[in-house]
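Revision sheet: structure tokens.
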Amino acid sequence: MGLLSSVFKKNDQQKPADVAKAEITKKEVKPVVDKITVGHVHMSGCTGCLVSLADNYGGLLTILDKYADLVYGLTLADVRHIPKMDVALVEGSVCINDKLSVEEIKQTREKAAIVVAVGGCASYGNITRFCRGGQQNQPQHEAFLPIGDLIKVDVYIPGCAPTPQLIRNVCIMAYLLLKGSPEQKALATNYLKPLMMAAQKGTSACFCDLMTEVIDQGLCMGCGSCAAACPVRAITHEYGKPQGTRDLCIKCGACYNQCPRSWFSFDVVPEYESIMELIDTVMK
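Predicted:
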């Protein structure tokens, strides 16, 4: 009984404030990774790229938990104005008839260290190039441009929509480029270099570019990547060679950027295994 009495007496002497302070201290001990700030800027598009981003499921939660804070997103964050951020993921093209949209894309360039064009609309205009109004409440919205025609873009993630894995990998590499070790920064630079080259090349890409730069030059190896990437099935294969239907092409750039012969990076190929191992390690 003497032992129990001493224990209860000791517990009674401990003040509630001391207990709360101890709990707070215990929570603060938990290590926190030095995150980067990321925003999702939605211009004129179908939201398919955002769906592709969300299709990373647990991988997206890992990124948001360990490596990135989402500071802006119309559907995911309650923030009215575009804040300062490390990486801006921009989806959709810009309606140049809409003054607010033009101002927002310019603000994005001013506030973001790295601007990423996500998807065919942001990179090349995609199907929005063919828009002629059609909105009953906003019939004046009839002219759309890819964001690269209005601001400088650092990285393209082409496709309609891009694969969830590609969006995830670019997010990881952006983090490593800004916060990683020198070795990790080198691998991240090698991985992002082809996507940076695509951004530097311009805002136009379609099957016609494949025809002039790859097929007509005898570089096509008939792998079928362009046909597999085309979201509107405008490319077929006949006798081992791709054939394009111009009337179906929406100029999303997916086929051109999927072709291994349209651009080839000696920075990526030798480091492919190291890059993939790094991504697997980061996502664990």
